[in-house]
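A quick aside before the break. I want you to see a complete sequence-to-structure record at least once, exactly as it would be stored in a machine-readable document. Don't worry about memorizing anything.
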Amino acid sequence: MVIVFGAGFAFLGVGSGGLDLGQMIRDTFGAKGGGGGTSISAAQKRVNEHPREAKAYKTLADALERKGRTDEAITALEQYTRLAPKDAGQLIRLGRLDYTQADAAATEANAAYAEQQTVYAGSTFGPSPSSKLGQALGSDPITQAVSTKVSTRVQEATTKYSTASSKTIATFQKLTKLKPGQDSFFSLAQAAEHFQNNKVALSAYRSLLKVEKDPATKARIRAKVASLQAALKQTGG
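That is the input. The structure line, written in tokens, reads:
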């Protein structure tokens, strides 16, 4: 098992609007925050006291993200977007955080899988478990413990990747409904393609084609649509 990503965020970097998700995120939020702002404890206290106040959850998400506690920041931001569903900027931010988490989980899953194969390969050089010598020696408890631990890492990371990638796509789908246009269609198309959801990517690129005005960019989109159609046909999608 190896998790392979699709295309990156570069192929439509020309034409009207620029259509650059990474730049859009940087423009909206800037670089990752420094040490200023409300503390986590103060933000959490505000949430506890006012659990229906959307701004309290955003402040908590800000504080958690500044400290690198991304999983918790995502949880707080999810609650914020439920209370303030029309805040497009924070939907983009949530999608970006889930996207980053999915990539990190995929990296961890691939690393754990490679380690798992090394453990399995090492065990093949010993005597067969069914042989008399193998039965006499029994299983190596250290190898067995390591194998179990690594298998758990693979499973946990794969599950986290699947959840985060699905949430990324769902968040950008919400964005296209809230603010349909070049940036939102492009964000969804690229995220879906990156995480190998070609059906969603194809639909988003077709929507993008309807609103894009630049001839050169439209040609690139048509090529991408054709490529995805061929890929879906090949896989029976």
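Two observations worth writing down. Residues 7-34 have pLDDT under 50 and may be disordered. The CA atoms of residues 110 and 227 lie 27 Å apart. We'll return to this after the break.
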